[in-house]
Amino acid sequence: MAATASPATTDAMLSRRDIFKYLAGGGVGVGTGLLLGEVNQRPLETLLSTHIPPEDFSPGMDTWYNTLCRMCPAGCGISVRVREGRAKKIEGNPGHPVNRGGTCALGQASLNALYNPDRLRSPMRSDGEGGFVESSWDEALEAIAPRLGAMQSAGMGGRTWILTGGSLSSGEEALDKFGEALGANILRLGLDTPATELAAAKAIYGFNGLPHYDIAKADLVVSFGADFLGAWRSPVGYSKAYGEFREGGGGHRGYLVQVESRMSLTGVNADEWLPARPGTEGALALALAAELLGRSGPDAAPAGWEDLPGALSLDEAAALADLPAERLHALAERLASAKTPLVLGGGAAGAGANATETLTCVAALNRVLGAAGTTVRPNLAHAPRYSALSEIEEFVAGAANGEVSLVIVAGVDPLHDLPDSLGLRGALDRAELVVALDSFPSDTASAADWILATDTFFETWDDDISLPGTGKLSVTLQQPVQKRLYDTLSVTDIVLRLAQRSGGALAEALPHEDAEAYTRSEWATAWTNLGIQDDFDAGFRQVQQQGVWVADLAEGMADQFSAEAAAPAAPPEPQFAGDASEYPFVLHPFQTPGLREGKGARLPWIQELPDPQTSVAYGSWVEVNPATADGLDLRDGDVVEVSSQAGTVTAPVLRYPGVRPDVIAMPLGQGHQANGRYAQGRGVNPASLLAARGDDITGALAWAATRVALRKTGERVRMTKTSGVSRTLGRQILGPADEH
Amino acid sequence: MIARRQGLELFVSIGVFEAARPVIKGLIIAVLAIIGAYIGHWAHGAILNDYTPLQPIEFSHEVHAGENEISCEYCHSWAGRSATAGVPSVETCVGCHKGLTEVRDTPEVVKLFDYWERGEGIPWVKIHDTPDFVHFRHKPHIRGGVECQTCHGPVEEMARVTRRVDLNENLRMPWCIDCHTEEDVANGRDCLTCHY
Questions:
Q1: CB contact under 8 A, A49 and B50
Q2: Do A47 and B8 touch (CB under 8 A)?
Q3: Is A60 within 8 Å of A83 (Cβ atoms)?
Q4: Beta-strand relationship, A160-164 and A406-410
């Protein structure tokens, strides 16, 4: 082995340096192997044992509980898959008359609310500097109940204002009873409320509630602004019906015409899309009604409807609405020959300054078509109430005069959903004590003195009558599918406890122990009132299993439509807040199927979900017609300042051919100042642009009656979009090559 | 010796080896590295594995299932009825231990009663697991007469439960398929029996 010492050999064979190299190579290999082993190792998981398991508990076995989805007022029945005491998955309840087994994205994502990391876990007290500190229920109730007791005995209940939504549930009823016993004022808030539709139904059908629209039975649907497949009232229920309508239950495929100034999801699916000038929908409907009456002759008209005063001719209406006259004539032809036509009105058409008149004309068209009673039918009569702007103004004025001692905000987020121009923020600042009942630090809750952490709908009892109805008597039961995750209570529980602690008339009005006892007693009362003879306990157990109670409309209820309605008057000219010379565009805020008015923004799945038409996710955008955009030199992603009389927001432009050149459209739902990590600071809120302008008749917020101006800022951003371009790039895929 | 040297030098002088020498060295290093990686990976599995993790309570199956001959399904009572065998509730442990005063003060039993009094579950560390794309179900296996030990090893001999390396290899698809074939299990080789 002396050879190794020889310079020649070391050169040729194995030098010390080589040995180190080989060792290093091997060493790196061993290290890599160890690391690979470590990386490939499955992470350790824990199997958390139960403490005392419930009797029917069996790990690994799922249980499905039927309950109610509360993400929107549609009131769909859902089945929740529960394993090991935790809700895991949501499906539609196949036995539910509204959604018949379907769910929407928002319903699917509602589990994100239950397990959200930013959910409130206990009552929170404001520290006076914008932050919140954890508190206890005892402390929280003790801070509020004595005030209530004092106001009650001094007869000053009017100094309390309750801000809530318009749902038709036992829980809302509890708030009502609470407010009544205290003598408090109740504001029922929401951006897109059916207030104008209710007024129109009352005027034309004589029906006190929202009618049931039977899309499935129709052979022609003409929708004035109602995006019933996207975000209007009950998209899941209407989508089911739409399927049947298109499959042609009546022997042939139904025909859909959509009249709206911005192409919605329903517009995309329509056979014909008529981009009418905003606010002219009523005049169009009335002109069509007059034309049809003229064709069928005065004998066929409802009494007193022989002549519709102020109705335009089709040509005049076409000129007003900026539509080709021949398309209106063709539509009149279609309506005249349809066997079971149905006309819908809603969305932006139901949210202008002349919205009630517009929807009244739409309902009148149904009446003239003979749809009232066939495809438009009475429902379980229920008329949710919504506050007019005047009532909100009263509250704001009261707060300014120091007449508001206590504000209870239950389950609504008016500081986000409603325009800033209403002055609600200032009013809440001036109120002595603001208590928000919410499961998230929403924009409104973050401005409160106390946030009382509430359950999600998976954790407590309630019920609901679905807003769009089913044409039947149906009430959906909400029951807890799992235990409370945190130290929270339901709104009903909080109301009951506050009432008990305050004593007096409040305690008498609400003597129930908790939400379960209360809900049961409400159902038992309804059982008695409906004259149901069966054993209540057994019946209620059955409802718990099925998730919904359904019965046919009682005798006589089916023809509640009065035949004595007066003929509608011509709707006034559309009016908009802001001068046309300064603010050249009409703002068309719209709801996307996921975000809606803003409830979806806190759910990460919804943020991730691209808007079905534009494919934009995680943000806001401004839809501008390409012709308008060319005039202003705007490309996709150019940031523009959108300003109105009421405010200014900045967002990137999206050139969208489906919006009229004189209209710009923006999605609602983003632009939260708080509301958890997924919602906060993302996008902008077009509601802050809206002027405090109400519908002429009901005083409901006219959210589609504001003019805006656009200004290019020079900034450019890349939008989060899943699609590339919407153009065919000269490939003539759908007809002639486009010019872009 | 000299001849060898001469031979080598002759070989070297041809220049082939001379030119290829760095490549050959590089290859040797690569081969050594690959062999090293195998050794490293094996050593990780054999020594640095997590097959015998520390549990929140040093519960001994050797004492309970071995010495005291408590049947598996007394505690894992869902094995024959559900997809999951389930870990027993704290209530189950305490049910017996309330009466076992002679061990009441041993440190591990004290821990148990601490969980009981706090009203908490015990966060046991999972040892046997199948990937999320496999839907293993206990019920048909128990009903089909498969012994617990077939998959879990001789748990009754383990003071601290371990997932043995060979078992780690065994709890893989070929092993399942072998047994399903041997026992002629109905639909036992259908993909959708386990992957759905």
A1: no
A2: no
A3: yes
A4: parallel
Strand A160-164, strand A63-68: pairing: unpaired
What span, in angstroms and rounded, lies between the C-alpha atoms of A652 and A629? 12
Q: Do A31 and B40 touch (CB under 8 A)?
A: yes
Inter-chain touch A25–B29, beta carbons under 8 Å: yes
- A99 backbone φψ class: left, alpha, beta (φ>0; ψ -120 to 50): alpha
Rounded to a whole number of angstroms, the distance from the CA of A648 to the nearest CA of chain B is 49
Q: What is the largest CA-CA distance in chain A?
A: 127
Bridge partners (DSSP) listed for residue A87: A82
- Which runs of consecutive H residues, i.e. helices, occur in A188-280? 195-204, 235-247, 265-269
Residues facing A185 on adjacent strands: A161
Contact between A155 and A184 under an 8 Å Cβ cutoff? The reply is no
Instruction: List the one residue out of B194, B153, B191 whose CA is nearest residue B170.
Output: B153
Q: With a threshold of 0.95, does the pTM exceed it?
A: no
Residue A34, chain B, CB below 8 Å: the answer is yes
DSSP A486: S
- Looking up tokens 């018949």, which residue turns up? A100
* Rounded-to-integer distance, Cα A670 and Cα A689, Å: 13
Residue ranges of E strands in A144-203: 160-164, 185-188
CA A651/CA A621 separation, integer angstroms? 5
Q: With an 8 Å Cβ cutoff, is A33 touching chain B? A: yes
- Among A24, A33, A53, the residue with its CB nearest the CB of B40 is A33
In the predicted model, residues of chain B with pLDDT beneath 50 are none
- H helix intervals, A558-658: 604-608, 626-631
Contact (CB<8Å) B45/A37: yes
Cα(B54)–Cα(B50) distance, rounded to whole angstroms?
9
Q: 10-residue block means of pLDDT along chain A (740 residues)?
A: 46 74 89 84 81 80 93 94 92 94 96 96 93 96 94 93 91 94 95 93 90 92 97 94 84 91 96 97 97 88 87 96 97 95 96 96 95 86 84 96 96 95 96 96 96 97 87 90 95 96 93 96 92 90 94 69 86 95 97 94 96 93 96 96 96 96 97 96 96 94 96 94 78 61
Token pair 């399903």 is found at: B180
Contacts 24+ apart (CB under 8 A), A629-632: A629/A653, A629/A655, A632/A710, A632/A712
The answer to whether A576 and A702 have CB atoms below 8 angstroms apart is: no
User: CB–CB of A278/A704 below 8 Å?
Assistant: yes
d(CA B96, CA B116): 13
CA–CA separation, A715 and A726 (whole Å): 23
Separation of alpha carbons A429 and A570, rounded Å: 43
Helices (H), A559-638: 604-608, 626-631
- Around Cβ A399, how many Cβ atoms within 10 Å? 21
* CA of B84 vs chain A CAs: smallest distance (Å): 5
Torsion angles phi and psi, residue A160, rounded to 5: -100, 135
